[in-house]
TrEMBL record:
<dbReference type="InterPro" id="IPR006050">
    <property type="entry name" value="DNA_photolyase_N"/>
</dbReference>
<dbReference type="GO" id="GO:0006950">
    <property type="term" value="P:response to stress"/>
</dbReference>
<dbReference type="InterPro" id="IPR036134">
    <property type="entry name" value="Crypto/Photolyase_FAD-like_sf"/>
</dbReference>
<dbReference type="GO" id="GO:0003677">
    <property type="term" value="F:DNA binding"/>
</dbReference>
<dbReference type="Pfam" id="PF03441">
    <property type="entry name" value="FAD_binding_7"/>
</dbReference>
<dbReference type="GO" id="GO:0003904">
    <property type="term" value="F:deoxyribodipyrimidine photo-lyase activity"/>
</dbReference>
<keyword id="KW-0456">Lyase</keyword>
<dbReference type="InterPro" id="IPR002081">
    <property type="entry name" value="Cryptochrome/DNA_photolyase_1"/>
</dbReference>
<keyword id="KW-0157">Chromophore</keyword>
<protein>
    <submittedName>
        <fullName>Deoxyribodipyrimidine photo-lyase</fullName>
    </submittedName>
</protein>
<dbReference type="GO" id="GO:0009416">
    <property type="term" value="P:response to light stimulus"/>
</dbReference>
<feature type="binding site">
    <location>
        <position position="207"/>
    </location>
    <ligand>
        <name>FAD</name>
    </ligand>
</feature>
<dbReference type="InterPro" id="IPR014729">
    <property type="entry name" value="Rossmann-like_a/b/a_fold"/>
</dbReference>
<feature type="site" description="Electron transfer via tryptophanyl radical">
    <location>
        <position position="281"/>
    </location>
</feature>
<dbReference type="GO" id="GO:0006139">
    <property type="term" value="P:nucleobase-containing compound metabolic process"/>
</dbReference>
<comment type="similarity">
    <text>Belongs to the DNA photolyase family.</text>
</comment>
<dbReference type="Pfam" id="PF00875">
    <property type="entry name" value="DNA_photolyase"/>
</dbReference>
Length: 443
């Protein structure tokens, strides 16, 4: 038996399904996918992070008597050139549209054995009594009570008997070869994932209280590592489950499960409104560009977007606020916002991003009701009263009284600050959005 072990979003040694289920002789590989990379800017932080992670994985595999062959190109071409002499490919599952089409092409050359270790449960394992999938999170979450209340979840064990196939493991494409430049990473991405997990332990007890305050350092900083599989969701569950106050964090892990579950059972929702609603969106490209650049005239929106553009990160509460503003106040299609986040977010994950955007736009599964429109000024007052986050991003505001941030066009009343007037009247645009949603629902 000769197998190709294709690492994709499982860049780890522990709790790795393909390293557990592989047999006999193996060729571990990683492919820097040209189809994906060609769409990214040359200074994309994710590419530097993945590159360094892949080199680290290679080192870890060598310590286990294996190695990692690293390629750059189109997966179809690479597998076609490798296929002779191999029986099958082992890999982890992916359910987004590109991944499914990619794997369909690969199976023309070699059979693929897929394993499910990027998530805790397979979407087919938890259905309603009538055999149909859940569409609402709470009953879905309750259906997994035996898992969520367990003390631990069984993880995969490394198969120590694997033999490395002789191959050219030393030829490694550089970032420059792939058209990218090495960039400086945020501090949290330079830390070992075990250190991040330990650091979050001290925040866990107050997680539920602090997680909405985007000026506080209250989140886990583990989403990027989870996205690329440096740590598995089962490992996180087992690590934090022993703490009595871990319920809030565990529930967030299962929101991630839920959005993947929705994408699996309703794949059309990646591109269309989950609820089938037909909406005539605002097509004004200038409005969208102002939102992207953080030039809307609303301090919390602009600070959030500028921070995203600079760092590739955005707090979950801020994601909800900027989503509501784009889809409800500007009435721009959620798919445009989702696409922009896909380009910018370090932790971009298709299922979670699509699910969250459809939630905020009131078009998705278990979504916010259409009449729920976040008031950005109320949100900034409640979660950043002293303007700590806003001032940290928009330096021109450092000397301003924070109360101006929470008043519509309040900053603009200061003659010494050059800041554009708010693009829309919050109350009027909210009313117009609700009327349009009512019309769409009744058509």
């Amino acid at each position: 038996m000769k197998q190709i072990l294709w690492f994709r979003r499982d860049l780890r040694i522990e709790d790795n399904a393909i390293l557990s289920n592989a047999k006999d002789e193996v060729l571990p590989i990683f492919i820097f996918d040209k189809n994906i990379l060609d769409k990214l800017p040359k200074d994309d932080k994710r590419v530097t992070f993945i590159y360094e992670t892949v080199l680290s994985l290679k080192k870890q595999l060598k310590e286990k008597g294996l190695d990692l062959a690293i390629f750059y190109g189109k997966p179809k071409d690479i597998i076609k050139n490798l296929k002779d002499g191999f029986d099958e490919i082992l890999c982890s599952c992916d359910f987004d549209d590109y991944a499914k089409n990619r794997d369909k092409q690969i199976e023309e050359f070699l059979p693929m054995k897929r394993f499910y270790d990027s998530f805790i449960t397979h979407p087919n394992e938890h259905l309603k009594n009538d055999g149909t999938p859940y569409k609402v999170f709470t009953p879905y979450y309750k259906s997994m009570n035996m898992i969520t209340t367990s003390s631990s979840i069984e993880t995969y064990k490394f198969n120590e008997s694997l033999k490395k196939i002789e191959f050219d493991y030393e030829t490694i494409p550089s970032l420059e070869d792939m058209g990218f430049e090495k960039v400086e990473l945020p501090e949290f991405l330079t830390k070992n994932v075990c250190i991040l997990m330990e650091e979050f332990t001290s925040k866990l007890e107050e997680y539920q209280e602090n997680r909405d305050f985007f000026f506080k350092d209250g989140t886990s900083k583990l989403s990027v590592h989870l996205r690329f599989g440096i740590v598995s969701p089962k490992q996180l569950f087992n690590y934090y489950r022993k703490y009595n106050y871990s319920e809030g964090f565990i529930r967030e892990l299962f929101w991630r499960e839920f959005y993947n579950y929705i994408l699996y059972h309703f794949p059309y929702s990646q591109f269309d409104n989950f609820n089938g609603m037909s909406i005539k969106w605002n097509e004004n490209e200038d409005d969208f560009i102002k939102w992207c650049e953080g030039n809307t005239g609303v301090p919390i929106i602009d600070a959030a977007m500028r921070h995203l553009n600079e760092t590739g990160t955005m707090h979950n509460r801020l994601r909800m606020i900027v989503c509501s503003f784009l889809t409800k106040n500007l009435f721009i299609d959620w798919k445009k916002g989702e696409g922009y986040f896909a380009l910018k977010l370090l932790d971009y994950e298709c299922s979670s991003n699509v699910g969250s955007w459809q939630w905020g736009a009131s078009t998705g599964a278990d979504a916010a009701p259409y009449f729920r429109v976040f008031n950005p000024y109320t949100q900034s007052l409640k979660f950043d009263k002293d303007g700590i986050f806003i001032k940290s991003v928009i330096k021109d505001f450092e000397s301003l009284s924070p109360r101006l941030f929470h008043i519509e066009n309040g900053v603009q009343s200061n003659l010494f600050v050059d800041y554009p007037k708010s693009m829309v009247d919050i109350s009027l645009s909210r009313k117009m959005a609700i009327d349009r949603f009512k019309e769409a629902k009744n058509v």
